[in-house]
Write a structure and sequence with these properties.
Bound molecules: beta-D-glucopyranose
Number of helices: 20
CATH architecture of the domain at 32-295: Distorted Sandwich
Binding site for substrate: 346-347, 602-603
Shape: globular
InterPro entries: 6-hairpin_glycosidase_sf, 6hp_glycosidase-like_sf, Gal_mutarotase_sf_dom, GH65_N, Glyco_hydro_65_C, Glyco_hydro_65_M, Glyco_hydro_65_N, Malt_Pase/Glycosyl_Hdrlase
Domain Glycoside hydrolase family 65 C-terminal: 700-753
Distance between the termini: 27 Å
Number of strands: 32
Structural class: alpha+beta
Low-confidence stretches: none
Helix content: 25-40%
CATH class of the domain at 32-295: Mainly Beta
Largest sheet: 11 strands, antiparallel
Keywords: Glycosyltransferase, Transferase
GO molecular function, one term: hydrolase activity, hydrolyzing O-glycosyl compounds
Strand content: 25-35%
Length: 768
């Protein structure tokens, strides 16, 4: 498996670079992202470079200008450190850099960079370290050690808060106030232009010469939207100057705000600034270890450690981006870049949620509470369209927002005009996907308290929307769903997209089941919900409409038509698009109108349906549909490979499964240096975990419970992992010849239609 980033043979938790490679900085910035679910910072270098893209976000602080889509504003930069050596600016583009190494430790999120730099007669050794704290969500700490190797030098260090950052040109912040507190604390207060979220950012520095702390007050420099502290120190040959930067960020919508952003920021930094870098790092590493890694375990014994690194990397990014409270969601690119503006998609429920609910269910719980809060926006959206219930936004930002998808995209190859993005109005399957995610969570965790308080209501609101969205077609004597975009976004006006119809059918049926069940078994919840819906009327409507909804059945060849017309469209040879390193290559040859009429599929569509509904659809049609759709799918979305890998493994195409697994790992880690520059692909990363656990590990939540039916790649000696199933910690070991299951509580699982019971701490071993 080829990676575009360096790894080490003997370290499963390290990715990095061994030469400065400044032309590809933007890719490394995304890959070496640091975050804690509140604060997210790209891995930009401390000193500036031409093609850098500095981004720092606080989750849930969206801002919107008229005629533009709402987006997470790019905060003032706190990473910057400018160093002058005898008047010459440190830059890897000048002088000679040797022994360069920069790496991200995936175990605790620390970035370490070290190198020797020779400029003129001066040679110095530099070591930079930094982390975003998992222990204190507001905190970022960085440290630089500089040792002159050839002669005494004068070092000038400039560090501060730089608000001249934009989101691709849009400045979201007003010119705020900038000042120094207690002669040492540099602070900027600012506010978003339209959403009026207030921010305070504070920085405090400590300097040491060898072990002795220097009492130096900075020389302040204030510019437009910038405030810097400057220091000047003489350092003798072989002495080590250590510069420690403590920086923190508070926002006015923080849930832990005590006083106001400025005071909270300052008080906290005064307190934290007494600790050493190392001590604060240990506190953060401790949280990674105790609260995260102990509950999320995957070990792959293979002929090399690339698969292990890929799954560690995926887990690192997912946890670093998982919201630490329930009012936020995970953007398609997390906080790792400006791509998709911080918006959340169906990516969360269908791709990321399984990871969280089987590892640390409290994160999944938070994500679903967000969707409960998001009912405000979703109900608004339904009403705007003349529908009932709740219609979830295709792109979600603040929970109260109805739809955040932009209206215009890139230029049409034929007309030269910007293409209208229809997803916000017609990619409606998200409303069933959210309900599906809610139900999967309830099934996997057994969290009926959430179900009663919020989960059932979400499903019912969605079901009510669908009941008002389906339309009667007297020709076929069925309800149908017309003019939608399914997962294959290259069909913009599909009628009866199979994925959408089956999901909607499931949602309405589940809604009816929930009402019937509550009426029989839980009158308290029933009457509470009855105040929001007319439950009797709704159940009747859901039963009637779900039973009469048109569901495209497999045809005589076993093929489920992707939509009413897909099978009649022209077929073309798509090899050149499938093998291209770049996505959207097909737009060089066709525009969307033309693609609408071709048998070309952007990403897993019917195949995803077959995976999600493997319980309900005949198993023997998977291979036929694979043979039909897989060759027509050009994988122009990072969501596609994982479904293909898992299905291929299921149907015994083991080489293809591994091939798709590799492709999936390479979405971000691979050699295409143009990909990921606007952020990594969170659903693709979740896909890496899914392929390993759901695919090779064979873990599925099926109708009758937990199924474990593993098959690992032939190059793997074993796969070991843990998961949480209905509150029990389950450890699974899979080898080429057997698998074993141990649980800390009583569980049962299904393997090839047999049910196995596991007593607490008893090891059940099954030969494969
Ligand atoms: C995909 C969508 C996905 C979005 C965000 C698009 O390219 O087609 O399915 O939700 O990216 O990841």
């Amino acid at each position: 498996m080829l990676f575009g980033i360096a790894t080490k043979k003997d370290d499963d938790w390290w990715i990095g670079v061994t030469n400065p490679d400044t032309p590809h900085l933007s890719k490394y910035e995304s890959l070496m992202f640091q975050g804690n679910g509140y604060l997210g910072i790209r891995g930009s270098l401390e000193e500036h470079y031409l093609n850098e893209k500095r981004d720092m976000f606080v989750l849930g602080t969206f801002d919107k200008f008229k005629n533009e889509a709402t987006e997470l504003p790019n905060l003032p930069d706190i990473v910057n450190i400018e160093i002058m050596v005898n008047g010459k600016l440190l830059s890897l583009n000048h002088g000679e850099t040797t022994n360069y190494q920069r790496g991200l430790n995936l175990h605790n999120g620390e970035i370490v960079r070290s190198f020797d730099w020779l400029n003129g007669k001066d040679k110095l050794h530099f070591e930079f370290r930094r982390f975003v704290s998992m222990d204190n969500c507001h905190l970022f700490v960085s440290e630089v050690k500089v040792t002159p190797l050839s002669d005494n030098v004068r070092l000038q260090i400039k560090s501060g808060i730089d608000g001249q950052q934009t989101n691709g040109g849009t400045q979201h912040f007003v010119e705020g106030t900038k000042r120094l507190f207690n002669a040492r604390f540099v602070q900027m207060q600012t506010q978003t232009q339209n959403s009026l979220v207030k921010f305070a950012l504070t920085e405090y520095h400590r300097l040491f010469l060898n072990a002795t702390e220097l009492t130096l007050n900075p020389r302040l420099q204030i510019e437009r939207r910038q405030i810097f502290a400057n220091y000047s120190i003489d350092v003798e040959k072989d002495q080590c100057l250590t510069f420690v930067k403590y920086a923190n960020v508070f926002a006015s919508n923080d849930q832990d705000l005590k006083d106001n952003v400025s005071m909270d920021c300052l008080c906290q930094l005064k307190h934290v600034g007494r600790e050493s870098y190392q001590k604060l790092l240990e506190a953060s590493s401790h949280v990674w270890e105790e609260k995260i890694w102990q509950d999320s375990f995957v070990e792959i014994a293979s002929h090399n450690n690339k698969p292990q690194i890929a799954v560690n990397y995926a887990r690192y990014q997912l946890f670093a981006n998982a919201p630490c409270d329930y009012s936020k969601n995970i953007g398609a690119k997390g906080m790792t870049g400006e791509g998709y503006k911080g918006h959340a998609f169906w990516d969360t429920e269908i791709f990321m949620l399984p990871f969280f609910m089987l590892n640390i269910p409290s994160y999944a719980h938070n994500l679903l509470i967000y969707r409960y809060l998001n009912l405000i926006g979703a109900q608004k959206k339904a009403r705007q369209g003349g529908y009932q219930g709740a219609q979830y936004p295709w792109e979600a930002a603040m929970p109260e927002d109805a739809e955040s998808a932009p209206l215009w995209g890139s230029a049409d190859i034929i007309t030269g005009e910007p293409m209208k993005i229809l997803s916000g109005s017609t990619e409606i399957h998200v409303t069933a996907d959210v309900a599906f995610g809610v139900y999967q969570y309830i099934k996997n965790t057994g969290d009926y308290s959430f179900a009663k308080r919020m989960g059932y209501e979400i499903i019912l609101q969605c079901a009510q929307f669908w009941a008002s969205r389906v339309t009667w077609n007297s020709e076929i004597n069925h309800f149908e769903i017309t003019d939608v975009i399914g997962p294959d976004e290259y069909k913009e006006h599909a009628n009866n997209n199979a994925f959408t119809n089956y999901m909607v059918h499931w949602c309405m049926r589940k809604g009816a089941e929930i009402i019937t069940d509550l009426r029989q078994n839980d009158l308290i919840t029933y009457s509470r919900l009855n105040k929001k819906f007319d439950m009797k009327k709704l159940v009747k409507e859901l039963i009637e409409k779900s039973s009469m909804l048109y569901l495209p059945a497999p045809n005589e060849n076993g093929i489920i038509a992707q939509d009413d017309n897909y099978l009649s469209y022209k077929k073309i040879n798509v090899n050149k698009y499938r093998t291209s390193d770049n996505i959207s290559e097909i737009f060089k040859d066709f525009d969307l109108k033309q693609l609408d009429k071709l048998q070309v599929t952007k990403q897993a569509d019917v195949l995803l349906l077959l995976l999600l509904f493997e319980d309900e659809l005949p198993k023997n049609i998977i291979k036929q549909n694979w043979d039909y759709y897989e060759p027509k799918t050009i994988h122009d979305s990072s969501l596609s490979f994982s479904t293909h890998a898992i299905l291929a493994n299921d149907i015994g195409l083991y080489d293809r499964a591994f091939d798709y697994f590799e492709k999936n790992c390479q979405i971000d880690l691979g050699t295409n240096m143009g990909s990921s520059v606007k952020g990594v692909h969170m659903a693709g990363l979740a896909g890496t975990w899914k392929i390993v656990i759901e695919g090779f590990g064979g873990i599925r939540a099926v109708k009758d419970g937990l199924r474990i039916q593993p098959h690992i790649p032939s190059t793997w000696k074993h796969l070991k992992f843990s998961l949480i199933w209905r509150g029990n910690k389950v450890d699974v070991l899979v080898t080429q010849t057997y698998f074993s299951v141990i649980s800390d509580g009583k569980i049962k699982f299904i393997y090839h239609d047999h049910i196995y019971h596991v007593e607490p701490q008893e090891r059940v071993l099954i030969e494969i």
